[in-house]
Amino acid sequence: MATTADFKNGMCIEFNGKLYTITHFLHVKPGKGAAFVRTKLKNVETGKVIENTFNAGLKINQVRIETREYQYLYKEESGFVFMNLENYDQITLPEHKIENADLYKDGIIVQIIFHAEKEEALLVNLPPFIESEVTYTEPGLKGDTASSNALKPATIETGATIMVPLFVNQGDVIKIDTRDRSYSERVK
Known about the structure:
Mean pLDDT: 89
CATH class of the largest domain: Mainly Beta
Radius of gyration: 21 Å
Shape: flat
Helix content: under 10%
CATH architecture of the largest domain: Roll
Number of helices: 0
Strand content: over 45%
Structural class: mainly beta
Distance between the termini: 51 Å
Order of helices and strands: EEEEEEEEEEEEEEEE
């Protein structure tokens, strides 16, 4: 058992029967009344962020989680198949535990978060940036670049559609920010 004094960013707690990680917290001691802690909690399974206020000193169930590196192998009917890079064990995870499933490319290295006591996979995190080839996009027309923030849709090799600048052409390899699915840069 932990208390609100033990809170730190990234800590995983059980709250209302669900697992949350603390993304932000602030201890508040008003001039009058009892102290409290304002928090932003991210649901480990859904990714939804909620705000909650805890009374200072409240006991909280802390959950131990572990992050392990896995390699994405392929997708099958029952889900996505990953291989542990240390012992080569394979696990299959259902699609609802995979965020940005359309950005996964064979062989990509991901971080899988496990509930340490239950040995249950909770969430899969892509690296912050991935590289992918543009398989289809409309050609940019000469003179369309008057606006520096003009974007067009482009389909990448995984089938996902990403908004890219007008100068990106079919066959280009681009770097994509997986946190917000945005174009980052063209790879040489």
